[in-house]
Specification:
heterodimer, A: 364 residues, alpha/beta, TIM Barrel, 8-stranded parallel barrel, two-stranded antiparallel ribbon, 18% strand, B: 360 residues
């Protein structure tokens, strides 16, 4: 089994403590690169042994490739997970931008490809395809990208959405250990799973019960690809303390912003199976004793949270790992403190299991 | 208005740019060499550095974002071709660089000059259609930069509905990036007058540029030239420099450019090849001898500092107010320009200004 990799969400520009995505997107500061503040976060993540930081993509934020370029130049170790969407840029140019970035920061990034979450937002970028076609296009897009990354001659491709002829670029992808970036395909639909298996390296999903994640992910594992999960961490010294934080997060009113109404509206307009499925999953508040959906309807699908004491969280992660998940993208409120809590108190438990294997414990 | 001077950064880390076949160029940017280039340009009073676009190069906007983080004053003139990304995404990228560098980004819009290369990028439009699409592209971009609310646009190539972005273009003195646009055809002229702050042309003798420059300037678009530079203390040294430059070639690179000229549908490039075929010295200060070996942009203003200064003012009097230079090697030529020519230019400008003040 692959060693588990733990990633974290990069904070937004001027991130408000506990703010929901809807709230944060409504703030102008979210659009600013806020490089100094983010660099401090990157350096702390490096110290804590976090693998990569997710630079998200949407209309409200700076471009993630360029943000990763600025942050990557000023850091040494930390990697980035660059979220991007197909349909906004040609595959040749996309590969050229990423390869250029790789030469500048030694290939310290992977990709999180999303097909788009909301038709309204896609229209703002000039993309008018419906959900299923967006996946078909994403598959073509990545097929061209992967062909460019193989570097075995000029690329010819004629598809429904892309056509390139004799395509080549001189700037290669450079990294110590790879010739192309890892490609996470984010989604929950059958189409996203298929793209993860054909063109991706990992299927990145929102959190669900471990047995459900295993059942849906088995064919991906069988195809030799990885499974990943994006969720949140809410921790405390004890489970009680963690629960208090969780309920406070949902109850708190920030600047009179109506998180629940905004998220409801986002969900209503969304055609993402991932977003909708998680919203519906949140009918059940506790998916397992440690997996809580209580913040989903205010803070969005990535707010499904592993909750508890450091040991309970480590056990939750181990259960997910046992279901085949090898990469985790975490968030929390506030991000920095939660990442520190994770890095200092949870990560050592996950890395060096002092706990006896269950069978051994049962035998005692 | 003071003349403005820009420099091409395409060769950072290379000595004889343009002399290699494009496919033989490494494509891996030498970051240290680029940073040295930027810092010297800052010291030399250069306004901005062109980061060009091509399949054989690093991506210009990613490179500019990186270099912008390592420098403080120099601006980056990022080359962009339409038809490669969504205008909304493009504005988001440009605004992101602006926000990270204090607005030190301007744009050099080119419609693409070789159909073969456009096809690498999935672009199969004809020359005139590329201009039409560039028009739509810039119309959408400018609508975002006006920042007056959601952007709606329905065209032949782009349809944007309720477009919005949260990252504004920020700069000390502008709310949108300065737009340069290269070309020499009628569609390019129309596009420049509609969208550009300044149009880049390849040079002809100054008096032959006057009429077209006048038309653009009347429409509120400045005219600039994209030209190489050879400045030496004496005329003998100037001629020696041109001879030495040609001695670098054994004929092979000439074929490289014949091949390029044959495949190009760029009116600007092909007209410079024609000029070069007709005459090595279309004007006493304008030399085309290197064009067959190093391509159209190697047409050069050559002379002593005084002669070059005179030539620059001849162009200015014909309506040309900005210059995008290249040199061999760039950094040495830039240093000579800065120490020997630029002071003469500024002196003459100051002299004219005080004369004008005295007259009024």
């Amino acid at each position: 089994m692959n060693a588990l990799k733990f990633h974290w969400h990069l904070p937004q520009g001027g991130e408000r403590q506990g703010a929901s995505r809807g709230h944060q997107d409504s703030l102008e500061v979210t659009g600013l690169p806020d490089v100094e503040h983010r660099l401090r976060f990157c350096r702390r993540a490096e110290e804590l042994g976090i693998d990569s930081l997710l630079t998200a993509f949407d209309w409200a934020r700076p471009d993630p490739i360029l943000l990763a370029s600025a942050l990557g130049l000023a850091t040494e170790k930390i990697k980035f997970i660059i979220a991007y969407r197909s349909g906004l840029i040609g595959p040749t140019s996309f590969v050229q931008q990423l390869n250029t970035l790789s030469t500048l920061i030694n290939g310290r990034f992977s990709l999180n490809i999303v097909a788009g979450e909301q038709p309204d937002e896609q229209h703002c970028f000039g993309d008018w395809l419906p959900h299923d076609e967006r996946y078909a296009r994403t598959e073509e897009f990545l097929a061209v990208c992967n062909a460019m990354w193989r570097r075995d001659g000029p690329v010819n491709f004629t598809g429904k959405y892309y056509k390139v002829e004799g395509a080549r670029i001189n700037t290669p992808f450079i990294a110590p250990d790879r010739t192309s970036p890892e490609i996470f395909i984010a989604g929950n639909s059958a189409q996203s799973q298929a793209v993860a298996m054909s063109e991706g390296t990992l299927w990145m999903r929102m959190a669900d019960r471990p047995e459900a994640m295993r059942a849906k992910g088995e064919s991906v594992l069988a195809a030799g690809k990885e499974l990943g999960v994006r969720c949140s961490i809410i921790g405390g010294r004890t489970r009680g303390e963690a629960l208090e934080k969780a309920y406070a997060l949902v109850a708190e009113k920030r600047d009179g912003f109506n998180d629940a109404a905004t998220e409801r509206e986002f969900m209503r307009k969304s055609d993402s199976v991932n977003v909708r499925a998680t919203y519906e999953l949140a009918e059940t508040e506790w998916l397992t004793p440690w997996l809580w959906t209580g913040a989903v309807r205010t803070h969005g699908a990535p707010a499904v949270a592993i909750i508890g004491s450091p040991r309970e969280i480590a056990e939750g992660i181990e259960e997910l790992a046992a279901a085949g998940i090898t990469q985790f993208i975490f968030g929390g409120w506030p991000k920095l403190e939660t990442m520190e809590f994770f890095g200092e108190q949870v990560l050592p438990l996950v890395r060096q299991p002092i706990r006896q294997p269950k069978e051994a414990a049962a035998a005692l | 208005m003071a003349l403005r001077f820009h420099w091409s950064m395409s060769s950072a880390g290379e000595t004889l740019k343009g002399s290699k076949a494009r496919s033989a160029v490494s494509g891996i940017p030498n970051l240290d060499a680029h940073i040295r280039f930027c810092r010297q340009a800052e010291e030399c009073g250069i306004d901005s550095l062109l980061t060009a676009f091509g399949f054989h190069r690093a991506d210009p906007i990613v490179l500019a974002s990186a270099l912008g983080m390592m420098t403080t004053r120099i601006k980056f003139m990022v080359a962009v071709r339409s038809g490669i990304c969504s205008p909304t995404l493009f504005v988001q990228q440009v605004n992101s660089v602006a926000a990270m560098t204090g607005g030190r980004i301007c744009l050099n819009v080119v419609a693409g000059h070789t159909p073969e290369e456009q096809k690498y990028y999935g672009d199969f439009l004809s020359h005139d259609e590329r201009y039409e699409r560039t028009d739509e592209f810039l119309t959408v971009c400018n609508a975002f930069w006006k920042n007056t609310g959601e952007v709606d646009f329905a065209g032949r190539y782009y349809t944007i509905e309720k477009g919005k972005l949260n990252t504004p273009f920020t700069a000390p003195d502008r709310t949108a990036p300065e737009i340069f646009l290269g070309g020499n055809s009628a569609p390019a002229d129309r596009l420049a007058m509609k969208h550009a702050d300044c149009m880049w042309r390849l040079p002809e003798p100054a008096d032959r540029m006057r009429d077209k420059a006048h038309m653009l300037v009347e429409a509120g678009t400045e005219v600039g030239i994209l030209v190489s530079l050879i400045v030496r203390p004496t005329h003998e040294e100037v001629l020696e420099a041109t001879t030495r430059l040609l001695a670098n070639f054994d004929g092979a690179p000439k074929r490289t450019h014949e091949e390029f000229a044959r495949k190009s549908d760029s009116v600007a490039f092909t007209s410079t090849y024609k000029l070069a075929n007709a005459d090595d010295w279309p004007a006493p200060y304008l030399w085309t001898g290197a064009v067959p070996y190093m391509g159209a942009p190697s047409i050069a203003i050559v002379g002593t500092p005084e002669e070059v200064t005179d030539a620059l003012f001849e162009y200015r009097d014909a309506g040309v107010t900005q210059f995008l230079f290249m040199g061999w090697p760039d950094l040495e030529e830039m240093a000579r320009f800065s120490s020997d020519v630029l002071p003469l230019v500024r002196q003459r400008e100051a002299g004219e200004a005080s004369k004008a003040a005295a007259a009024s």
